[in-house]
Amino acid sequence: MLDTVAAAAEDPARDQPWADLGLKADEYERIREILGRRPTSSELAMYSVMWSEHCSYKSSKVHLKQFSELPQETPLGKTLAGIGENAGVIDIGQGYAVTFKVESHNHPSYVEPYQGAATGVGGIVRDILAMGARPVAVMDPLRFGPLDADDTHRVLPGIVAGVGGYGNCLGLPNIGGEAVFDETYLGNPLVNALCVGVLRHEDLHLAKASGVGNKVVLYGARTGGDGIGGVSVLASETFDAAEDGTSGPAKRPAVQVGDPFMEKLLIECTLEIFAAGIVAGIQDLGGAGLSCATSELASAGDGGMHVELDKVPLRDSTLSPEEILMSESQERMMAVVEPGDVEAFLAICAKWDVEAAVIGEVTDTGRLHVDWHGQRVVDVPPRSVAHEGPTYSRPLARPSWQDALQADRAEDLPRPSTPEELRKTLLRMVASPNLCDKSWITDQYDRYVRGNTVLAQPSDSGMVRVDEETNLGVAVSTDCNGRFAKLDPYAGAQLALAESYRNVATGGAVPLAISDCLNFGSPEDPAVMWQFAEACRGLKDGCAELGIPVTGGNVSLYNQTGETAILPTPVVAVLGVVEDVTRRTPSAWSQAGETVFLLGETREELSGSEWANVVHGHLGGTPPRVDLAAEKALAQLLHEGVGLLTSAHDCADGGLAQTLAEAAMRTMVGVTVTLPGDAFVGLFAESAARAVVTVPAGDADRLRDLAARHGVPLTELGTTGGDALVVEGAFEVPLLELRSAWTATLPAALA
């Protein structure tokens, strides 16, 4: 029997499955207070998904609001859209704007790796499309359990195939990302997806339903039973550990199923609709599906909407109203269209073979009304669903083990002392899972489709051309070292910001703004909430010092298996502008006889390092010192050095040794260096604010002058050339031997 609004008023005592839908007892009572009665089953479905952790940010928004205190402007001017929209939009000059955002699809990718990852890409692409932009590139920061773990072998190939399969079919280049392995991600892999889009300033669109009498049009794929309640009972739950140490979700709703070919049609159809100027408001359907799109559009617009749910095109005719409202079927959009433009809108959809249906209209009632075959099943204030959900100030406490963790310094561990031990350490390090060649993954992605990719993996950042005549472009990087964040979440978040900022700068770009994806354990654990709060504070303070805004992002909580939380993983994406991509600085030298310099200061900073991880299985101490003034000076030097520098590569994971190895192996041109002081510290310390650069031998003094002007420490290391990596007075490794060790790891593990 249909549970209508009238029935709810007449039957106030009916038992309802609010707990099974992820709601707490006090949340259910609050819904009853808002409505003055019990909710109908359809209303309960809407509130459960929209008040979920994933959609409402109920545990995190008290900490996220500080990002809004940052000046909403980049080094180039005011942001065009920021926090609260589908994605941030920034001005990059010449009348162009860029929109970018990074989001998570972690839990679905554990349950069904291929579809979980594929639909993660599809969802972020639609967020970018909804801003009025053409998507031009994607990236994928990934985290897995140990490379030799059985469950890693289950999830990694499927996740990589899903990211590649969906992105490749859309014709979007994958220009970068990360693949990091750590035991805390076993049973809880992280699949973060980023998309970049380009638009002219005048093409910006926002998500709101305005204009009484305007029609609400649902277009794209039909609605099915996949992903029902995904955000409320999958993305907002911790995985329970099984006896064998693996995990499984406490509840298993269907993971969304993607169709990239429908999404490609949807992209082209939507862009033509934008060009025709016949859209008053638009929203993609992602997490929470129709519940989200209808309530958010109504809440952000004139405050009322009437929807006839039985007009929604279905793949499965047996779906109930509740299931239709909760379904997270992919490749769907909702538009608000003036009555006189509906015919033209539907004609464009028909041209692209995209199904469309008018399912409602904007009203002045201030209510969201949803009818099912003429009977009212939803009558709610839309803001109460979309924007006025619960807000929790969760208990937080510095963990009791934090002091002991920080006291256990990696600087006190045994270290290699002989030339042969240093050589063996280098070969072991380059072959380790986090430092080895990732082309087994990236070769499954099309990095150059569309013909505008300038830089892609394994370069420090991804770079795409925006204008083919002026060569204006953008560079993007994503970074996070969760080991640093575990040791000190405040500093760890700033180090993630600093590395991403630096990676964009090495190509010659000017960093403009960030998006973040904050992946943490259960918010019901005070230690996790302390980590989260510290990371947010660190990011806010870091952005303030660097003079760049947070344009938006995503929070993913409950990333833990049983009692084991993941490493705190605040992934930071930085986007920068490049005035002329043809003059970008490459990440590796290509000529012999060039002079190699280290920019920045190396200190004995080994705690949290890959050396401590690989050689000793150790995590303890305090992370490298954060010096954002030094990062800013280095970035300014790298930008001003465009044309002078023949290469620039940041120093981060694995230290100087990894930087030299990667740069030499990229073009198989060797290098000979002399290290001042302790060779081990010089090679494997992971001090921040550093980069290795090369210049023609005759230009060394120009670089010295430039470094002096910016106050950046400069150390001459040596010269490029030969077929080996040579550390004078210590060891040499032929590049073929180095490359063999570097490239063998992933194919051997995943074959």
From TrEMBL:
GO molecular function, a single term: phosphoribosylformylglycinamidine synthase activity
Keyword Metal-binding applies: yes
Amino acids binding Mg(2+) 1: 103, 554
Domain of life: Bacteria
List of residues binding substrate: 104-107, 126, 256, 328-330, 556
Sorted UniProt keywords: ATP-binding, Cytoplasm, Ligase, Magnesium, Metal-binding, Nucleotide-binding, Purine biosynthesis
Protein name: Phosphoribosylformylglycinamidine synthase subunit PurL
Lineage: Bacteria, Bacillati, Actinomycetota, Actinomycetes, Propionibacteriales
Recorded name of the encoding gene: purL
